[in-house]
Amino acid sequence: MRILHVLPSLDQSYGGPLRAVLDLSAHSESSAFQSEILGFGTANIPDNPLPLELIHSLRLAFPRGYCYSPELSGWLRDHLSSYDGVILHGMWLYPNRAVSQACRAIGKPYAYFPHGMLEPWSVFQQGHLKAIKKLLYWQLCERKIVEGAAVVVFTTQRELHLASETFALPTVPSCVVPYGVAAARDPVDRPSNASLLFRAEDNVALFLGRLHPKKNLSFLIRAWAEAQLGSAWRLMIAGPGEERYVSQLQQLVRDLKIERQVSFVSMVTGADKTYLLQNAKWFLLPSQQENFGNAVLEAIQQGCPVAISDQVYLSELLHDATEVLPLKHEAWVDFIRNRMTDESRRARIMDLDRTHMRGRFDIANVSKQWADNLLEIFSSVRQGALV
Fold first, then answer.
1. 3-class secondary structure for 283-296?
2. Cα dihedral across residues 368, 370, 373, 376: positive or negative
3. 285: phi then psi, degrees, rounded to nearest 5
4. Which of 148, 183, 299, 371 keeps 20 to 30 A from 23, CA to CA?
5. Of 183 and 195, the one with more pLDDT
């Protein structure tokens, strides 16, 4: 069975589901199941696990923010019929509209994977104008895309539940399939980027991911400043982000006079990413909304305990001792000042995290679940058995 994943971007620095889809697709490869990816714009995929011939990139044109490609209709006309099913990733963009229309025209089943975009926070808490646009787009276009789907895919039960609070969803089958994480890598002694090298006496707390307002980094920086750890600890913020937003964060650090305690590095991948996760004392993620939190699994897999907000939905699947904190300033200040600096507690949490995760989110097990669900869904649709 050939499955086509449609993603808005092939640039890993953009964030979103690209990395997870690549890893799941690569580990789902079998004689019965093959995944290919259709994306838009220039490809930027460090450590790409899929053969290049399985990744198709189309040119973007104005309006780029809507992910419009003049090449898409022709590509679909030439290639869509060769796939057994399609998975649409994300929402509110031209490719999903065009591909869903093409699928319906030839009776090709497709799955709809909103990746957290079908939730109250994503729709209503990113500005009044964006909320109005999404409400209108839902009525004019997106609802019809959901109605035509063979299945709607979520990564957690919480995401599924919240989606139903945002809109009156059409009656469409749904399934929950989590992300997975690959086995821990061998220890990395030194990073290729010398600026990332930790000294033996360094105590580093790490944020690693896309720098975006929903990650709540200004909240984290303010809590760090109030905790007043001095030179004993430092906070490293690693990842790509829009220049204006990164500049605002850097200015906040200067305003709070903690330049010596907080450092910024750009996108980190491969062995350098592994090095940071293996050597940081804690991984911090105070997000306002994460429909899953794959970076949390990666940190735990590399032996780095995590402190995350209760808006990271993966938190509900971890053990009771995991540092899951409310988005309250005093809660994060207390953790940073007191529990984060307790080495015996850190070691205990690290062991509990890894023991609890072992096997549960293994990429091989999750990939099999992923493949089995898709095979059942698309095979049933072809046979007319799914109602």
1. EEECCCCECCCHHH
2. negative
3. -145, 90
4. 148
5. 195
CA dist., res. 345 & res. 45, Å (int): 37
Classify residue 354 as exposed, middle or buried by CB count within 10 Å of its CB (0-12, 13-18, 19+).
Answer: middle
* Residue entry with tokens 């591909």: 99
Q: Do the Cβ atoms of 123 and 135 come closer than 8 Å? A: yes
d(CA 283, CA 266): 17
Q: Give yes or no for a cis peptide into 63 (omega within 30° of 0).
A: yes
Cα 156 from Cα 290, distance rounded (Å): 10
Tens-place pLDDT, residues 308-322: 999 999 998 888 889
pLDDT for 251: 98
Q: Would 2-180+363-382 and 194-357 be classified into the same CATH topology? A: yes
CA atoms within 13 A on the CB side of 38: 26
Distance CA 265, CA 196 (A): 8
Closest Cα to residue 87, out of 191, 148, 5? 5
Q: State which fold the 2-180+363-382 domain adopts.
A: Rossmann fold (3.40.50)
Kindly report the backbone phi and psi dihedral angles of residue 344, in degrees, each rounded to the nearest multiple of 5, phi listed first.
-65, -40
Per residue in 67-83, pLDDT tens?
999 999 999 999 999 99
**pTM for the predicted model, two decimal places:** 0.89
- Strands 2-6 and 323-325 turn out to be unpaired
Q: Would you call 297 helix, strand, or coil by DSSP?
A: helix
Q: Give phi and psi for 89, each to the nearest 5.
A: -105, 130
- The DSSP element (H or E) to which 354 belongs, if any, is helix 343-357
> What is the residue type of 340?
M
Q: Which fold, 194-357?
A: Rossmann fold (3.40.50)
Q: What are the residue boundaries of the structural domains of the chain, listed by start?
A: 2-180+363-382, 194-357
Q: What are phi and psi of 70, to 5 degrees?
A: -70, -10
Q: Where are the beta strands (DSSP E) in the chain?
A: 2-6, 34-40, 55-58, 85-89, 110-113, 151-154, 174-176, 204-208, 234-238, 262-265, 282-285, 306-309, 323-325
Give alpha helix (H) positions in 167-239: 217-227
- Per-residue pLDDT tens for 209-243? 999 999 999 999 999 999 999 888 999 999 999 99
Bin 216: left if φ > 0, else alpha if -120 < ψ < 50, else beta. left
Instruction: Check residue 386 and give its pLDDT.
Output: 42
The per-residue pLDDT for 383 is 54
